[in-house]
Structure formats: C-alpha cells, structure tokens
Write a structure and sequence with these properties.
Blueprint: H1 3-18, E1 29-31, E2 56-62, H2 66-77, E3 83-86, H3 95-98, H4 110-113, H5 117-120, H6 131-144, E4 151-152, E5 157-163, E6 168-173, E7 178-186, E8 195-197, E9 208-211, H7 217-220, E10 236-240, H8 244-256, E11 259-264, E12 270-271, H9 280-286, H10 291-303, H11 317-329, H12 339-364, H13 368-373, E13 386-387, H14 391-394, E14 400-404, E15 412-413, E16 417-420, E17 423-426, E18 429-432, H15 442-446, E19 449-451, H16 458-461, E20 480-482, H17 495-516, E21 520-523, H18 525-533, H19 539-546, H20 574-587, E22 593-596, E23 606-607, E24 612-614, E25 621-623, H21 633-651, H22 661-673, E26 679-682, E27 687-690, H23 699-705, H24 712-722, E28 733-734, E29 740-741, E30 759-760, H25 767-770, E31 773-774, E32 789-790
Parallel strand pairs: 2-3, 2-7, 3-4, 5-19, 7-20, 9-18, 10-11, 10-18, 11-14, 12-13
Antiparallel strand pairs: 1-8, 5-6, 6-7, 15-16, 16-17, 21-22, 23-24, 24-25, 26-27, 27-30, 28-29, 31-32
Helix pairs in contact: 2-17, 11-12, 21-22
Length: about 850
Amino acid sequence: MNEADRIALRRRYAQERDKRLRPDGNDQYLELMGRFSHLLDDPYAPRTERDPRRDHVTFAFVGGGFAGLVTGASLKEAGLRDVRIVEKGGGFGGTWYWNRYPGAQCDTSAMIYMPLLEETGHVPSERYAHAPEIRAHCDRIARQYGLYDDVLFHTEVTDLEWDASRARWIVRTNRADEFTAQFVGIGTGPLHVAKLPGIPGIEDFEGHAFHTSRWDYAYTGGDPDGAPMDRLAGQRVAIIGTGATAVQCVPHLARACRALFVFQRTPSSVDVRDNRPIDPGWFAEVAAPGWQERWLENFVANMAAAEYPEEDLVNDGWTDLAKRIRGRITAPRSGPAGLQDLLDDFEIADFEKMSEIRARVDAIVTDQPTAQRLKAWYRQLCKRPCFHDEYLGAYNLPSVHLVDTDGQGVERITPAGVMVAGVEYPVDCIIYASGFEVGTEATRRYGFDMAGRDGRKLSDYWSDGMRSMHGVHVHGFPNAFHVQLWQGGNVIANVPHNLTDAAKTVAAVVSHMAEGGSDVVEVTREAEDAWMELLIANPVMTSFLADCTPGYYNNEGHFDGRQSPLGGGYREGAPAYFRYIRRWREAGDFAGLEFSRPCLRSGPLLDAGREQVHHLGDARRAQVGPPGGGIDPAQVGLAVELRQRVEERRRGGVGLERGGDVVRQIAALRALGSQFNDHLVADGDARIAHPHRGHGERPSAVARRDRPADLPSVDRAAYEMLSFGAPGLVRVKRNRDDRAAPGTGTDAGTEPLKAHDLIVARPPRCAALAGRARSRSGRGSPGTRSRAASKGPGPRWPGPRPRCPRRPRPGLRPRRGCPGRRPDPGRAAGAGRPR
C-alpha cells in the first residue's frame, strides 16, 4: 500500500466519522423507564414471592453473570461457604440470561470464553458456542459450586451502605431485603442495562416492539434453541441497529419474515467466523492439566503486538491483526525503527486487514449498491469487530432490505412504521438491536450508589472518572471488590479472562484475612494513586480513539483523552498485567492493602451446609459433625469469636474495656447474625454460650439434661482450634462431676470435648499482673459486675481474680490479697484491686 492510498483512506475515514458525530453523545439513548419500563420485564421466568431477608452473610455478590459465578466458585474453592448472590434476572448467566435472541453465540473462541471449563469438565460442542450451551454452562457452574444454596433471583440491589461500627455492609434491595455482609462484590458488568435509541416519536408506534435482550418468542414463534419463528411468516419487521446482535439475528429473521427492513447508521466490520464442531478426540489431546490457563495466556500474548508467542492456539480473526502488525515490525529494515515507523506499521497492517474485510463484502453480496453500503470505513478496533458466516449472504434474499441512513440514523418513528430521509417504511413490528449502556456512569449502570466510609458516595468519588487499584479495590470503600475488566487487564476481546483473574484476587484476599484474623481490608490512597499513574492513557492510543468513528469504545466520539472511556488498562498491556498480578497474589503481603481488626467482628466463617469451621489462627480446619450429634458448629464458631477477643486483649489490640465487654460483643454477634438464637449466660468464673441453657443455669445441669454424643475423632481438632496461638489462655475441660471448670494448662484427665464445654476460662493470675490493673467502675452486660481493666497490653480476664499460689519471700512485706509481691510503685493511690 503506497502513501497515496493511505492518505485517501485517512480522508475517507475522517469523512465517515464526522457525519456520525452528535453533540448529545451517550444522551442520545433512552433509559427503559416510564412507558418503556415494560421492556425490562423478564419474559423467561416467573417471579417467585418470598419473605424479605434480614440476616447476615459473609460475602454478598451483586450480579449472577460470569463475574458472580467465577467469584462465587473461587470463594467456595478457598473454603468460604457463606456466599449469597443477588441477581435481577430469574437465573444465572447475566448477559447470557437476557440474550436469547435467535442466533446468539459468543464471538470469541469457546475454549477461552466459557470460564471454568477445566474445573467443570465441560467440552464445548463447537468453536463458537451458541447461547443455550453457554447458559447451560452457567447453570453447571452454579450447581457444582453450590451457588443455588443462597441466591436471590429477581432482586435488584438499591443501596449499599458501609456500617463502620459493625465493620459490615448493609445491603438493601427492591424487595424490602435489608441484610448485612462482611464483604460485598460488584459484578454487574457492562452489558446488562438495555438502552433504546432516542428517536422522535418512538412512543407513538402502534405496532409491536421489543428489545433484543427481551426477545418476544410469544410474538415471533420459535424458541431460544433455534426452532423456526413461524409466526413471522406474514409480518413486516424492522430491526434498528447493525451491531454484533443484529449481525447474529438478521440471518434468522431473514428466513422467517415476509419482509425484513434493516436500518443502519454505521455498518459493522464482519470477518470470517469459520465456526465448526469441536472434535472430542482432538480436545482430549489438547486438554492436559492446566490447558485452559495456557490457552488464555496464549490468546492475550497473540493479541499484544509487543509479545512474540511461538504459536497461536486460538488462531482466528482476533489474533490475525496482531500477527500482521508483528510481521511488519519484525520485517528487515534498512535501519533502526523509530516511533513513527512503528505507528506506520500499525496503520498499514490495519488498512490491509480492513481492505480484505471490505473486499469480502463485494465477494458475497450480489447487489453492488447494497454491498457498498455494508462496507465499514474505519479502523478495525474502532468498533467491536464482528465475525459471521451468514450475515452478508442474508442481503441476497429478496425479502431483506437494507435501509442505510448515511450515518444520520432513523429520522422518526411514526404510528405505522419507521421514517428515514422523508420516506416512511410501514412495518408490523420493530425490534430494537440498540445494545446496552457502556459509557454511562457506573452507578447508573449498577442501579444503586454505594456509601463508603463517612457516608461518601461512590458517584462522588468517581465524579472525575473511575479510580481503583487493579480495577478491584477502591479507597474509602472497605471490604468491597469490583469484579470487571477495566483498570486491570482490560482484555476487551475476551472479557471473562478479566473476571476469572479478578475472582482469584478476591478469593486470595479473603482467604488471607481468614487466616490472619483480619476483618477489614482497604486499599490505601497512596497505592491507588500509584496504580492510576500506571493507567495514564498511552498518547498513541489516545490519538487512535479520538480519530475513530463514534461508538462505545470512544464514548460516542466525546473523548477528552484524560481517561479511557472504558476505564483503561495496565499501560504495559494485558500479558504484563496478568504476570504482575499473579506475582502480587503469590507474594502474600498484598502490597497496597491495609488489613485491620475492629473491636467487633462480623461473625465466624461458618459453613451452614457442611458445618465447617475455619481455623482463624493458622488456617487449619476442624471438620464438625452433622447437626444433632457432637459439637454444634454455631457454638464452636461463637467460642472462636470469644477466643479471638481474648487473644486481642492479650496483644493489646482492644484496649481498656469493662470486664463484660467481650460478653456483650458476642451477644451482639448473636443478635445481629441470627444464627445464634441462644441465651448467653454469665457465670462467676466462666462465660458459656449454649442454646439450650436457661438464665442462671449451671453448666452441670445442662450437661446432665442435654448430653450430646461424643465425637472423639474431632475432639482434638476442635480443642486445638479453640486454643491456637497461646496455650493456656483457653482450656476447655470437664471435671469428673460433669461441671465445667477452667483448665490448669494440662490435659490430664480431660474428657472428650462437648458443645456445652465451650468456655473461656481465666488462667492462674498472680499479683504481678494484678498490680498493673486499675479498678474501673461501670456496669457490664446483664448478669456481670464491674471488673478491673488492664492498663497494659495484657488481657482482662472475666471472673474473680484467683489467689496467687506462691509463698511470700523472706524479708518482703506481702501485698494485701496476694502474698509475695511488691506493689507497683506507679500504681495510683487508692486504686482498688480486681474483685
């Protein structure tokens, strides 16, 4: 291609771009509200009535698409069982739940597009799987990982509010739910809020109309599995839009309608798809352990011009352009290549590729005026590339009519049809293939605003654009994870790759918190700022997007260059990002994140299904038997919580407290968590939680009245779990008369651990420790009396102070109440001793 040809193409591209520029940008589209709100109704599943939720979960995730599925699966694999997904649809799948239009299929290889293939053992039936198979795979993931156990379908989150006093999120929904969660994840995705073109008169149409994301098979006939749309045989149908959705459904409509009118503002670039079945024998050879991860890494490497992989496993239209660019860059030169040489190589490779795509139109479409109107005059990556083997051929059918608007769009909708350039086209049905909101504000797409620390709204924090670290963590919004593609790898050609990687990050952080006993995680502002510096738009890419024809890649042509309309990605490219983030996770210190433990924990990590308790001390787990026999997991979890508070006191992490504070904290956990529907009773020498115990009842009475069966196989594990990290601080023992009593640091004579034995006992305490204590007035929780509070880092033990067993040394005047120790000279005069 010579210089004159390149100049001519640049001029043609600019002309086509300028005629499509609009001052209203994203505002040209309408939200589906008011008289259009019925277009949001779910035609695929009936809504089931249920009672509002008022409980607590460990992890709540907003969105049941790929993001929610892979994050839920990663959390379950990490051992967290308490995961709730909130989804506005009637099933899992996200975009693939809604997109059931005829011909819907992925336009990226199913080998890398469908997540968790290796984990589920599913073999894609074809190179580019159709929607029913993808939707079935979503269901497969949900069932395999138990995500149906706690899911709220047909439910939309309306508000997320951080409650700093309890270190948890308050989740409110449109179905009167108001529950709490220690962690929240947001994975609503960019393709779920349907939009309509803001065409004058759109509300005046008297025929039938629907959006492609809510396909009306009751009107068209057929079904999502491909049955013929037999009810359109005598109908005149208009479809407005020629993006990826229209490219897939037009061939099916063309075969079903009496007349199909395709209204086009900007033609798509449509390359060869070459779809074909996947041979099981070939797949068996390919599917060695770790195969999908290798394919994912190979795809992003082949998509990057700066990477030089030895092979191209996917080898399709997506990777072809990058290979062309690399071919030109590595071609022999007379001298070293400069920046302008590299830019020229990029441009020439793109011009050659798009010239081939335009030539393909001429080779397929027989009517030359129609063929000319179907040609895309822009660089391939300015708009979403499309791939299809039947779309262009549909225009050879006599029933299909292309109505090109020369970049201006539809002029008006009339009661009887669609008007373009003063010509009315009468139709019986209008199908809007106008896609989804992408470039609008995140909180508008979410459907809610988040209130983080100090009530700050996410919409305010992102008023100048999205800010994050890794696209996952946002400063000021603790324990919240955003699972999406932007400001991370930003692999637009294969969005699920971004989601599965972000899910690994979420699971790694939550697991780290469980192992270390942390409750709150938040990215520092310094780390977020540093990451944002790495996302500053490359000036080459900025110039490229600014010169593109309008679309959601460049915010409908309103691109100021400050931040990529899609949030941008790691400046060094997707392959470098995935290598970086893998090292960041494996390092284990999670640089940039701050972990903390407030006074009130959010609750134990309990598995209500398998009754599994996480050992928060060293990540060991104690497998607990089924309900009705052995240790009650809720009580074990409660004791673990109480044990955590004692450990914090020992380390000085809680500070000065009244003696009853620990008991009140656990009582609050019980009341807030709803899983602890028991009585908390304070005794003189122990704090014991038992669901069957009445106020003031001694533990021996409970033991005789309600003795659970022994489970010797788990006694030791549970015992170690309760006493991890500081031997002697917690001992759970039983005397021979069945009365629970504090331990003495030895296991001799200890009977098997039972649920009602879960106590926190004070070890022997001598005057040296008592001498550092001050008396402190004030009331504890009900059933307790005032205790002395620890001045130093030592723990404050509930219960009366024991007598010190040591004998006084000769020559020393014993202190009152404990012989053999000098009084603390720094102790305030008149300070009382602990009672």
